[in-house]
Amino acid sequence: MEQFYTIQGEGANAGRAAYFIRLGGCDVGCHWCDVKESWDADLHPRLSIESLVAEASAHSGRNVVITGGEPLMHDLGPLTRALHEAGLQTWMETSGAHPLSGEWDWICLSPKKFKAPLPEVLRNAHELKVVVFNKSDFAWAEEHAAQVGPDCRLFLQPEWGKAAQVTPLIIDYVKQHPQWQVSLQTHKYLDIP
């Protein structure tokens, strides 16, 4: 769908330079999604792996985030192998609703209630980032935290449109449950892509 060089705004790698490759196609359908235009893969041109790697390699940052849409709707093995061969780190943000493919240096699992993450993605996640829309999301976050590995980092992130209401709840929750961390969409505060 699009590609751009920016600063990672969320989660464990927030603040680091990263090249984003946003793939078209998503069947999860979150009502609060901020890139609904990514849902229909047929609306976006197909690009070669070679051109994606060349564009990513043209920047001094060595981190590439594969996102969507839902990136795991695609076989990501050939793309991630080519990125690694070019000396780039591969990071992914996924709902985990599709089988895991690709070679990953960092997997950010952001599960959605509309389509459950698969156990293999839960087991391989480096980071669990739960978007908090309402109070019931805390119990839902704990259900998923119980399924990830012991070294997986845990983040609670306010849904942007409800940040004023849920951020104080997240702060209180993290203070009571310090295994969690707060994640903010810093790219939105910085007004960058």
UniProtKB/TrEMBL annotation:
GO MF assignments: 4 iron, 4 sulfur cluster binding; carbon-nitrogen lyase activity; magnesium ion binding; S-adenosyl-L-methionine binding
Boundaries of every Radical SAM core domain copy: 13-193
Pathway(s) per entry: Purine metabolism; 7-cyano-7-deazaguanine biosynthesis
Residues annotated as binding [4Fe-4S] cluster: C26, C30, C33
Positions of substrate binding: I7, Q8, G9, R22, T67, P193
InterPro entries: 7-CO-7-deazaguanine_synth-like (IPR024924), Aldolase_TIM (IPR013785), rSAM (IPR007197), rSAM_sf (IPR058240)
A Pfam family matched in the record: Radical_SAM
First-tier enzyme category under EC: lyase
Cofactor binding note from Swiss-Prot or TrEMBL: Binds 1 S-adenosyl-L-methionine per subunit.
EC number: 4.3.99.3
Keywords: 4Fe-4S, Iron, Iron-sulfur, Lyase, Magnesium, Metal-binding, Queuosine biosynthesis, S-adenosyl-L-methionine
Cofactor: S-adenosyl-L-methionine; [4Fe-4S] cluster; Mg(2+)
Catalytic activity: 6-carboxy-5,6,7,8-tetrahydropterin + H(+) = 7-carboxy-7-carbaguanine + NH4(+)
Single biological process term from Gene Ontology: tRNA queuosine(34) biosynthetic process
Binding site for S-adenosyl-L-methionine: W32, C33, D34, G69, S110, P111, K112
PANTHER family: 7-CARBOXY-7-DEAZAGUANINE SYNTHASE
Family: Belongs to the radical SAM superfamily. 7-carboxy-7-deazaguanine synthase family.
Role of this protein: Catalyzes the complex heterocyclic radical-mediated conversion of 6-carboxy-5,6,7,8-tetrahydropterin (CPH4) to 7-carboxy-7-deazaguanine (CDG), a step common to the biosynthetic pathways of all 7-deazapurine-containing compounds.
Subunit structure, interactors included: Homodimer.
Protein name, entry field: 7-carboxy-7-deazaguanine synthase
Recorded name of the encoding gene: queE
